[in-house]
Amino acid sequence: MKSREEEYREIFMAEALEYYDAMSRHISELEKDPDDEKALHELFRLMHNLKANARAMGFNDIGEVAHRMETIFGLIRSKERAFAGSLVPVLFAGVDTLGGMIRAVDQDEAVANSDKLLHNLDLLVQGEEPILESEEKNADEDASRKLELSDLVYIQIKKLDHLLNLVGELIIDRDRIMTLSQEIGSPALQAAASHLFRIADDLQYSVMDARLVNVGSLFNKFPRVVRDVAVAEKKEVELTINGQDIQIDRNILQIITDALLHLVRNAIGHGLETPEERRRAGKPEQGNLTLSAQTERDDVLIQVIDDGKGIDVEQVRRKAVERGLVTTEAARSLDASAVRAFLFEPGFSMAKEVTDISGRGVGLDVVKLAIDSLGGQLRVDSVLGQGTTFTLVLPTSIAVKGALLFELEERSYAIPLMHTDSVVSLQPNDLHVVGGILMARLLGENVPVVDLRQLLHSNDGPLLPAVKAELQGRQDIIIVNYNNRKLGLIVDRFLRQQDIVIKPMSKPLDMIDLFGGVTLLGSGQVCLVIDVPALTRLFLAKRP
Fold this sequence. Notes:
The protein has a 6-stranded mixed beta sheet. By secondary structure, it is an alpha+beta fold. The two termini are 56 Å apart. A hairpin with a 5-residue loop joins strand 17 and strand 18. It contains 18 helices and 18 strands. It has helices at residues 4-32, 37-57, 60-77, 87-106, 115-125, 135-139, 157-184, 187-210, 216-219, 222-233, 250-271, 275-280, 313-322, 328-332, 336-340, 364-373, 452-457, 532-542, and strands at 212-214, 237-242, 247-249, 287-296, 299-306, 377-383, 387-395, 401-408, 411-416, 420-426, 431-434, 437-442, 445-451, 475-482, 485-491, 493-500, 515-520, 526-530. Helix 1 packs antiparallel against helix 2 (37-57) and helix 3 runs antiparallel to helix 4.
């Protein structure tokens, strides 16, 4: 398996060789037409990008040549120098030298001595004449030139999306063939099915791997954002970025871009104090904000951490009561995590005034919806006076999801494992009725329990009050967790845990909020995928 350094080096080489090819083309165009501003602009841009990339990789020799070439092309753009006379062969020599230096890195060879070229480039910058060799000798840096193609290719995301969809179809058919081979019992068919299973698995992970990008491609855009927001809020903020090399599906990174932007702006606008407030609280005037990424089993955790004033749980509790989200009596019994969950309710805001950064009605509920759409989770931890941490728990890929299959009224359903807390089997005596709702005591916590059949089939009115006498024998219960709220779902029986490929619902079924999509089981049976966030919201709306 390749190291991160090897992967970065391959990416650098692919881009650098492309830059070299483009430089060679554009400088030839510029020689034919010295007034070609498009070619001149491209040469300046290419030199700038190569300089930055080479220095970032530690290839300082390449960076120095590119830097001086960039300077000269800048002088030509500003009309201080003309692309004519002795300047032309020196710049051509510079492009050729860069090509040789790039190839030397790829082949682990010593980088060619560029001192003479650098001296000539410095002379040109200073407006002096360079020291040129004979054209015959130069015609020899040509006879030895090689034409090379990059080992890497760039693929449009939509092509990878299409390939991933095809792999999803293959996975579904693979499972069907595996099931059929077991039913028929033919050793030859079972062997072929096992081989197909391994190939499909390898293909699936290869395609998923091709879609992975570094989190740093998004994180590295935030220093400027933080600077601009801090200036607008009149705050001093130091940004720390960790885990840039953690990899995640590019589509997931695209979907969370706005959510992460909102959390960062929220941390600066709401979380961090002004320099005066921090000084009074005995803190350094400069606030600290950290963007961090790490892996945890099959998930990627992205955190936004600030050392600000933290979340005042009692203030949120009062605001939730004012908004009618919870009764005063019920609010008193909620723990800190349950109270902080109100921050994700639509339109909920603690902003005292409207600014360009906060308080315009776009709250954390938008962030929560984005994370929910990926089958992820959003957690918030906070200590008053010390700071707040928002944690985005994201799947590495959205192509295939782990799910728990269960049966209800002789139909199969699936619940994503991301929202599955645990499964339990309880006797009716283990359940109690409180306020018309069944409750189970699990690990010291009271968890409401509802018959999923009743919840799926309920009309616009509230759920019927629970009656323990209607329960007969052992009850299989799936405990789901959404927004720090646990809910027990009574089902007919557990089936198994399985990776599934979720397909979107077709019209008009896509209007049903309770289902997040469908999948096809190995038996060929269509299986509806439960949308846990929507189901939890429905339960809260319909509870008696």
